Amino acid sequence: MCGIFGYTGKDSAAPILLEGLRALEYRGYDSSGIAIAGRFAVKAVGPVENLKISGVGDEFSGIAHTRWATHGEPTEINAHPHTDCSNQLWLVHNGIIENYKELKNKLEAEGCLFHSDTDTEALVHLIEYHLKKAPSLEEAVIFSLKEVQGTYGIALSYSKEPEKIIAARKGAPVLIGSGDGAYFIASDLAPVLPHTQNILYLEDGELAIITPQSCRIYDLDYHLLEKKFEEVSWDPTESSKGEHEHFMLKEIMEIPQVIQRALENRLDYKRDLIKLDELLPLNGKLAAAERIVIVGCGSAFYAGLVGEYMIEEYARLPVEVEVGSEFRYRNPIIGSKDILVAVSQSGETADTLEAIREAKKMGATTISIVNAQGSTISRETDVCIYNHAGPEISVASTKAFISQLTVLAMLGIFFGQVRGISFNKKEAIEGLFNLPSTVESLLENREGLKKLAKKYSRYNNFLYVGRKYNLPIAYEGALKLKEISYIHAEGYGAGEMKHGPLAMIDENFPTVAIALKDDVYSKMLSNTQEIRARKGKVIAIATEDNVEDLSRLTKDIFVVPVTLSFLSPIVTAISLQLFAYYMAKERGYNIDKPRNLAKSVTVE
Q1: Is the pLDDT reported for residue 413 higher than 60?
Q2: Which of 146, 222, 275, 437 has a CA between 20 and 30 Å from the CA of residue 565?
Q3: Annotated active-site positions, please?
Q4: Are 478 and 578 in contact (CB under 8 A)?
């Protein structure tokens, strides 16, 4: 969740660290801090813009942190970096030290003085304790990490060796970038890409010793490891807002290009085939598969629910969709003929990663759909399908969610091909081929959603309803509204209205009804009439061919382009992303950095 960043090189560290924190702020913005050359630190509560670095000098190394609070409230004392009793060791940390209370009790008995409420402070004091006896700083860190229970991604600075930074990981992401006479340490790619695309990812149980001249990787038995930097292909300019007021709007407007990138080299329009070369080594297992299990968290879980419909329709395989945070705790039944598909934007989602590990223990084949190149999930699954959405900075997922749906649509068709299932592949491929232009036309007509948001922004409760392919989009639409507008919203199956939710409906509880002209339209129309009969206001998401029907029930209609049923969740989801964006803007909220949330959930 939190963001860590470090730099050692030939340039003044403070401005580089500050800029890095700005790029990482979507991982947490409760407080932030910078330690320079292991000598002193500056901290501030709130967003990174509150951090003042004037007068910190021209030191050439340092570490930095932007916090999403777990242990202890957002205060300057609880802000990272944390230090030891002599202010010589400074530590930034992402993760949770589960045995920090036991460590704290032990260290206080040894005379260590604690000042914060954080779990992190126990680790820096533990390193201080071991440093008194260890032959080197590196070994003191190793001794300490062997005592720690929980998860960590850390960067450590020491005043007696100011050019050196030590980084380590267990369960929380850490990568290292190699630039021109400099190294960068970070939780993810965003702050590193402006400087270099040469990246090395640490694995669990690895420790890096970094100076401007070298980067050496060790295991926790202090054995030197052979690892190489690799070039990543993300465009660093995508981490800029450009002409847009918010990253969220910019990322929505990028969706046609994002879909095109996801389809590139995978859509054989001439032969009516999906080509997922990543999956070729698994063709035998795919053909013999008896069940697909999709795992994700948040929006990725809702993408999985859409994927369930897609795969069952085109591959005729039973599909189950599981919330990542529940999967391993319910003693799942999974075996060697099952395929687990893990969906994660960051590729670091802790719950999803643990689900993968659990499934692998049970012999299942694992596939991931991931955006971040080189991420842990992409490396730990048998194969990874990258969705190529590029950096997504806004906390609320938009373009990454749509790219996940696009890949899942291809996956459903591909599974059907491998299994020899008969269906109208030409129609399905053509629908995918036309999808970028279909979305372009939706975005060109987004003004109607802005007007609807202006009309409805004063309401504090919303119901979202849909059926079949668009039931999960009702869930996702409600989530988007909650995330950035702080409006209570519920997603529900329209057919379930009579089983409870109708009790909530009155003139102050509007409903967003996804009512496209498809094979469940007549049912959806009846459900909408039930809402209107209870004086409920309705915003309808429709296609041009059913506007006349719906206009008898409501004047508040947004028309989306017609596409195939299995692709309709893409156009309806984009319309609800835009509606949530305009609602949040009308209410004056911080759209890209909603309260209490962070982009990447790397702790359970």
Answers
A1: yes
A2: 275
A3: 2, 599
A4: no
